[in-house]
Design goal:
It contains ten helices and nine strands. It is α+β, with helices and mostly antiparallel strands. The strands form two sheets. Strands 4-5-6-7-9-8 form a six-stranded mixed sheet, sandwiched between helices. Strands 1-3-2 form a three-stranded antiparallel sheet. A hairpin with a 2-residue loop joins strand 5 and strand 6. It starts with 7 loop residues before the first helix and ends in a 10-residue tail after the last strand.
């Protein structure tokens, strides 16, 4: 609503910090991000956790960028950094508390299924994510292994800005059924999948999840231009149009 749907791709690439978004070119954007990250690690974090070395958190921050959109695995990150799981949990909580990272909780109930019960972690600002991944322009974004995960995180944040952060979850079973975002609103369950595709299609997982969770509707959010039905109660919708949804 602030930059206009026609600037969606630019907002996704550069992120939502005004000085970053308004940078005249990629070099200016990179300089701003460098200064921002340095200030965050060397000035802001020591005010919150005086005993934490900025270098350690910076290393964790950069490493976590490669796990963006994945289920939290503290043991793997701890091994990679040669620190304790308690330490990486502390690092994560600091980044969540400073609004750099989102920890999206899993939805689970007695469904008779083996469910994933660890949160998923996302960078809340796509520009910060791209800077830490070394992505500086659209071409490098489109060819990056985290391209799909980047879109997922960007679209997720836009959804939560629109509909609020309360009662928001993801859903995943050990057998592979997944849902990127589950919103509970007005006693109903609404599902969202984020697909960075020109023409998304349904999958077996979508149908299984829709049945498991008794979804009112499942929306497949993609960066296209038109809304169209994929099946009964499953619809592809451009991200620019989600503001028109009424979840009641």
């Amino acid at each position: 609503s602030e930059v206009g749907a026609e600037n969606q791709a630019h907002l996704w690439l550069r992120g939502g910090f005004p000085r970053a978004y308004l940078s005249g070119n990629s070099a200016a954007w990179t300089r701003w991000m460098e200064n921002f990250s340095r200030t965050f690690l060397e000035r802001d974090i020591p005010q919150l956790a005086s005993r934490l070395a900025p270098q350690a958190l910076g290393r964790f921050w950069r490493m976590l960028a490669h796990f963006h959109g994945q289920t939290w695995n503290g043991a793997e990150l701890a091994r990679s950094m040669d620190v304790s799981p308690t330490a990486v949990n502390h690092y994560r909580d600091l980044l969540v508390g400073t609004f750099m990272v989102r920890s999206l909780p899993p939805w689970y109930e007695n469904l008779g299924k083996r469910l994933v019960k660890s949160p998923k972690v996302y960078f809340r600002d796509s520009g910060v994510l791209h800077y830490l991944l070394g992505v500086h322009d659209s071409k490098s974004l489109f060819t990056h292994p985290r391209y799909g995960a980047s879109w997922e995180g960007f679209a997720l944040e836009q959804m939560l800005l629109r509909f609020g952060q309360r009662e928001a979850y993801f859903y995943s079973t050990q057998r592979g059924a997944e849902l990127d975002l589950l919103l509970l609103r007005a006693g109903k369950r609404w599902g969202f999948e984020f697909k960075c595709s020109d023409a998304p299609r349904t999958s077996k997982s979508m149908h299984v999840t829709k049945k498991d969770l008794r979804l009112e509707h499942l929306w497949v959010v993609y960066p296209g231009k038109r809304m169209y039905p994929l099946s009964d109660d499953i619809t592809a919708i451009p991200l620019k149009d989600v503001g028109e949804l009424n979840l009641h």
